[in-house]
Amino acid sequence: MDEGIQREMHHGECLMTPEDTERCLSEETWGVLSVCGDDGYPYGVPMNYVWDEGTVLLHGTSESSHRLDALRRSEKVCFTVVPEHTLDREQWSTVYTSVIVFGKAEIIEAPAERRIAMRAFMQGLSPSKTGEALQICDPETANLVMIRIRPVRITGKKST
């Protein structure tokens, strides 16, 4: 494991259980993918996602984009989900829940694997439209990209 992701959480009392962390990932559909962008600058892009069998699935529609160029340079990513955030101005605090997935991303190249990933993605976001989406946007021929993040470390944090 990389040294940077072994750090202990600063407020350990806020650490979520692995079960609550996974539940959060499976219930949410929106997060921010962070990659090492151009010239070493971090690049974060908000994206829909699906938690599928212990991995994060993401979808894109362009073979050439900032995020894909970055992934081709380095597979290391951070994916952040923040399902709850409320500022308590009177208490000078925030009520929040957040999950961070450190992992290694892969661009799914094989058409058959891309179809499986696209089906899981659509099933997670819009189950009633999965068949229609696969007909309109055939993963074996369409210009679409599927990305899978295999977690190396996952942390969940919730305000106390």
Helix coverage percent of residues?
25-40%
The CATH superfamily appears as Electron Transport, Fmn-binding Protein, Chain A
Give the domain tally: 1
Given the structure, what is the number of helices? 4
| Shape annotation | globular
Poorly predicted spans: none
Question: Can you identify the CATH class?
Answer: Mainly Beta
Kindly, what is the distance between the CA atoms of the first and last residues, rounded to a whole number of angstroms? 29 Å
User: Any idea of the CATH topology?
Assistant: Pnp Oxidase, Chain A
Please tell me the overall pLDDT.
87
Care to count the β-strands? Answer: 7
Q: What order do the SSEs take from the amino end to the carboxyl end, as H and E?
A: HEEEEHEEHHE
Q: Assess the beta-strand content as a share of residues.
A: 35-45%
Radius of gyration: 17 Å
What CATH architecture do you see? Roll
User: Could you describe the largest sheet, including whether it forms a barrel?
Assistant: 7 strands, antiparallel
Structural description of this entry:
The protein has a single domain, classed as Electron Transport, Fmn-binding Protein, Chain A (Pnp Oxidase, Chain A). The protein has helices spanning 18-27, 66-73, 111-125, 130-136, and strands at 30-36, 42-48, 50-52, 55-60, 76-88, 93-108, 145-158. The chain is 25% helix and 41% strand. The protein is built from four helices and seven strands; from the N terminus they run αββββαββααβ. The chain starts with 17 loop residues before the first helix and ends with a strand. Helix 3 crosses helix 4 (130-136). The longest helix is centred in the last third of the chain and has 15 residues, at 111-125. A seven-stranded antiparallel sheet has the order 2-1-5-6-7-4-3. The protein has 160 residues and is α+β, with helices and mostly antiparallel strands. The model has no long low-confidence stretch (mean pLDDT 87).
